[in-house]
Each structure stands twice: as C-alpha cells, then as structure tokens.
Amino acid sequence: MNVVDMHCDTISKIYQSPINNPSHLKKNDFQLDISKMQSGDYLLQNFAIFMDKETVDSSYEEAKNMIDLFYQEMNENEEQIRPVTRYEQILENGLNDRMSALLTMEEGAPIEGNVEKLEEFYDLGVRMMTLTWNHPNEIGYPNASFADSNNQLTDHPQKGLTNKGIEIVQRMNELGMIIDVSHGSDALVHDVLQHTDRPFVASHSNTRKICPHFRNLPDDLIKKIAERGGVIGINFYDDFLQDAKENGSLINAICQHIRHLYNVGGIEAIGLGSDFDGLPVREELPDGSILPTIYDALRKSDFSSEQVDQIFNKNVLRLYQDFLI
Q1: What contacts 318, CB < 8 A, 6 or more positions away?
Q2: Alpha-carbon distance values, 167 to 112, 138, 173, 200 (Å)
Q3: By CB distance 3.0 to 4.6 Å, which of 24, 138, 147, 187 could disulfide with 158?
Q4: Alpha carbon distance 222, 197 (integer Å)
Q5: Which residues are registered as beta bridge partners of 100?
Q6: Closest of 294, 323, 228, 256 to residue 3, by C-alpha
Q7: Residues linked to residue 282 through DSSP beta bridges, in sequence order
Q8: Is 56 exposed, middle or buried (0-12, 13-18, 19+ CB in 10 A)?
C-alpha cells in the first residue's frame, strides 16, 4: 500500500509538549508516531514546521528550533525513519524497510520575505513550503482573510501574491522547493499559475463543490492545478469534509471528495494530505493506523487497485521525482 502523506503537524505537537513530560515521535498520544505509521503502512510522511505567527516573537527563530527538533527525532529513530531530500533516498529507505520523512514548512512567515532566508531553509532540508497559513504575510494572502462568519468566501476582490511573493515563488521553482498553495487565497493560486511554470501542490485541501468551506478548492483551480501536473492532498479534517450540520461517515466523505477530484482533474492530480495532529481526533479517523481502512473504502467505491495506488503514493512520488534531485 505504501502511504505517502503530504501534510501533518506532528513535529509542532511534539515541540509544544510539556518540558517536564515531553512527547516524542517514537511513541506518543498523538495521531502519528512510529508504531501508528508502521501499522498504516507508511512509506513517506511530510513533517511540517508550523506555528501561528501571531503568537510567537520570531517565526524565523521558532522555525529554526522546530527544525532542530525534527532532526533530533530523526536521529533517535534512524532505524525506522530517515529524512530525505532526494528521490533516490526514498527508494533506498523503502528497500531497507525504513520510512522516509520530508521536511516542509506550513506558513511562509519564517523567511520574512527574504530570498536569502528561503535559501537557508532549503539548505536545512526544507523541500516544500505552504506559502501562507491563515494570516497575510510577506508572501501573500490566505482565503481566511476573505471569509465571513459562515466560513464562506465574500464577494469583494481578493489579494494574492505580493511583489515579494512573486520573487519568492520563482526562486522556489529555481531551487526545486515545491510550492504549496493550501490555505492560500483563490487569487494567490491564480498568481502562482501566472508567475511560475512548474507543477505545485495543495498539500492538504479538499473540494469546495462537495463541502463549501473557504479552505477547499473550486473546480476551476482543481482543473488548472491538474493541468500543470500538480497534486491535491485530501485533508481529513471533518470541517473540510462535510458541512457541520451533516453527521455522515467521514471516510465516505473522503471518498466523495476523491471522486470529485477525479471527475474534475483526473486521477493523477489526487494524493493524501491527512493534516494529522492538526485536526481533532474522531473515532472514525483516530490516527495513521486507519489508512488501510481508507484504502479498502476507495476500492469499494469502484476505484481500481492501480488508481488507489496512484492516490496513495504514485502521484506524489512522480512529482517528487522531478523536484528531489
């Protein structure tokens, strides 16, 4: 099965755990640890460095500290999981029954609109960056800035990338750092399409047609991301899967979103972006060990084994093969 998941917040959760009782990747009470990932048949997990920039003194320093923690956890668990920056390392780890970890950033604020800091984080191993979280930053604007109290987008014009943001995304393309537009405004995604020429991802976003939340993507952007060769990772957060008034199966909702992505963008545009440890624990989606159940649900939803394998790993690995060189 070999799960490839484009987004989790586990490193942030470990970082925020109490000093007198710290949590670790090897075993914890969160949604992802080594044993849960092994039970879920993980090949590769993207580990995001995330903070709310409004609550820290320096997002740059906070990100550096989290990256130090990431490598500490990798060193302590090197027999089970190792960090990767090249595609060949993923293959090598798989052949040796080890999982792989790709370091990413969720929130571009730590680079402070500075190309040199972008390059510094690249040198530290960051290979994907979500341009914004839920606050505007030096790079651009999130959809959260344009949502009303019902979580819907308002009608007034949106802002997208800043001038500095255009410079940043173009340098990301040159470096081989994958652009991630999850959280970004619709206008920001259009600007990325206009000012770059390489595939990019929405690492943890769903479809607005199935669930009309501002964090989800409209059909026109799904189609354009797919045409560019990008991948959209399905997010397991219940608010992004179904309306709060609904009380249906979350796994069925995942299948619905994947079916809609397939209908609009094609099978090659679909991946996984669970958002584990950034979402509430639900009985139906408790942790990473649930992935085989989701695999079976997709097979029962009339996706072939080849198609489900594309969703679970091949589509993202195809994109990584082009970037992680």
Answers
A1: 268
A2: 13, 11, 10, 16
A3: 187
A4: 16
A5: 44, 82
A6: 294
A7: 285
A8: middle
Q: What distance in Å separates the CA atoms of residue 227 and residue 167, rounded to the nearest whole number?
A: 23
Rg (CA), the chain: 18
Instruction: Look at the chain and count its residues.
Output: 325
Q: Which two tokens stand for residue 122?
A: 């690249």
Which residues have C-beta within 8 Å of that of residue 70, sequence separation ≥ 6? 11, 47, 49, 83, 101, 103
Tokens of 159: 């802002």
Dist CA 1 CA 43 (whole Å): 9
Phi then psi for residue 161, to 5 deg, are -75, 145
From 264, 214, 260, select the one nearest 234 (Cα to Cα). Answer: 260
Cα distance between residue 167 and residue 165, in whole Å: 5
Query: DSSP string of 138-185?
Result: SSB-BGGGGB-TTSPBPSSPP--B-HHHHHHHHHHHHHTPEEE-TTB-
For the domain covering 3-323, report its CATH number: 3.20.20.140
